[in-house]
Amino acid sequence: MATTPAPEQDIDTLEQIHADLAARDLAPAEHLVDGGYTSPATIHRARNEYGIDLAGPVRLAPTARALPGFNKEDFQPNWEEKALTCPNGATSPPWKPTLADGRPRLSVLFPRATCRACEDRPKCTGNVDGKGRHILLLPQPLQEIQNRVRKEQNTRPWQDRYAMRAGCEATVSETVHAHGLRNCRYRGTAKTHVQHVLTAAGTNIIRLSRHRPGDGSADHLASPTTRFRHLCQQLSEETRIRHS
Ligand code: SF4
User: Fold this and answer.
1) How far apart are the CA of 83 and the centre of ligand 1, in A?
2) Ligand 1 pocket check for 67: Cβ under 6 Å
């Protein structure tokens, strides 16, 4: 499940939404969001600062697809001893604190000799020049969240729960592409907000107008036929009649 990280301002917006909801005592127990908003850090902050269970897929390791072998979460950390145990039972020397993109990380390097002698080395280290497996861990609370969510998001119960978001992206896409939500007609955030509210209301009215009282079939919820689709149907019908 690949995701693209959201820009910092989007993360700030999420934080602001949570802060505003909490200030009005309206913080939800659970908030399902697009994968761009979920990282171990945002999940941790939402839980600890606002009591919100932020749910969304976290990014897989960049090498997960290229190396379908052992991922970071397959290694067992010993936080007291500051060591990792690999799936083949080898234990690393104590990890060292480091920085990656200015953020604190823990650098774990398995001994070269141990990995060279390992049959699983090609699918673990991914290198052929005999280096030991190198792993960067997040600080403990974040690493535990990343491990947990990466495992959970592959399970059916998690996917069923997340499926409640189905339709959100389609609605956003509809307001953007069919109703011009990204083109602001006004100046200033107050008027822009009015445009957003009116667009949302208009979207709901259009949807309601399409919703004919049900006759028991699923047809009454079907999307209207686009002109292009209508043309295709017309042409295929004409072709069918010509050949019959
Ligand atoms: S290559 Fe090294 S770290 Fe990977 S499974 Fe083998 S011994 Fe463990």
Assistant:
1) 14
2) no
Ligand 1 center–CA 38 separation, angstroms? 30
My answer on whether 90 and 132 are in the same domain is: yes
Evaluate whether residue 85 is within a structural domain: yes
Ligand 1 atom closest to the CA of 89, numbered from 1 = 8
With respect to residue 196, please indicate whether it lies within any of the assigned structural domains. yes
What distance in angstroms lies between residue 106's CA and the mean position of ligand 1's atoms? 18
DSSP per residue, 108-162? EE--HHHHHT-TTHHHHT--SS-PPPEEEEPPHHHHHHHHHHHHHTTSHHHHHHH
pTM: 0.72
Range of the domain at 202: 170-209
Per-residue pLDDT of the chain (244 residues; tens, 9 = 90+): 445 555 565 678 899 999 999 999 999 999 999 888 999 999 999 999 999 999 999 988 776 556 567 888 899 999 999 999 999 999 999 999 999 989 999 999 999 999 999 988 887 877 667 789 999 999 999 999 999 999 999 999 999 999 988 888 888 888 999 888 888 888 999 999 999 999 999 999 988 887 776 655 545 555 556 677 777 888 888 888 877 7
What DSSP element (H or E) covers 214?
none
